Amino acid sequence: MTGPFLDMAMNGGEMGFDMEAQTAKIWDGGDVKICASSLPFIGNAVVQIIKQISTSPHRLATRLERETGTKWLIERTTVEAENKRGMEDLKNGQVLDTIQPLFYSAAWEGCGADIVGQGKHLVVGIADA
């Protein structure tokens, strides 16, 4: 989690600081630490994540088996099946049940996950890792 976007919150007054009126609303004595991130910091973090070497769910599962020393039960599915399940749950009003199938199906290749392999990172000006 990034916490609030510090620069936006400071400039917009959401953190209790009014730059124009030069007033501040201090919470709980003012010494309680907060966690916040600036938009440039978040942008740099996203770039670094995109530059990371991509992997596959199969490779991750193999690594987990090796690290834990146990055989894992693997359930196989498809993006199409998970999208269908998520949309059915959504139609039935089970909104929370849609999060995993719809979110994660978008993360697997075929739905735009391998942006480096597809050259999409160049569109936003990120050099090859």
Strand runs, count = 2
Overall pLDDT score: 76
**Span from first to last CA?**
24 Å
Order of helices and strands: HEEHHHH
Q: Enumerate how many helices there are, as a single number.
A: 5
Biggest β-sheet: strands ordered side by side in the sheet = 1-2
Cα shape: elongated
Could you say which structural class the secondary elements and strand pairing correspond to? mainly alpha
Keywords: NADP, Oxidoreductase
Organism: Kwoniella dejecticola CBS 10117
GO molecular function: oxidoreductase activity
Protein name: NmrA-like domain-containing protein
What does this structure look like?
By secondary structure, this protein is mostly helical. The chain has a domain at 56-113. The protein is built from five helices and two strands. It has helices at 6-12, 39-51, 57-68, 79-91, 95-107, and strands at 17-18, 23-24. Strands 1-2 form a two-stranded antiparallel sheet. Helix 4 packs antiparallel against helix 5. The longest helix is centred in the middle third of the chain and has 13 residues, at 39-51. The protein is elongated. The model has no long low-confidence stretch (mean pLDDT 76). GO terms for molecular function: oxidoreductase activity.
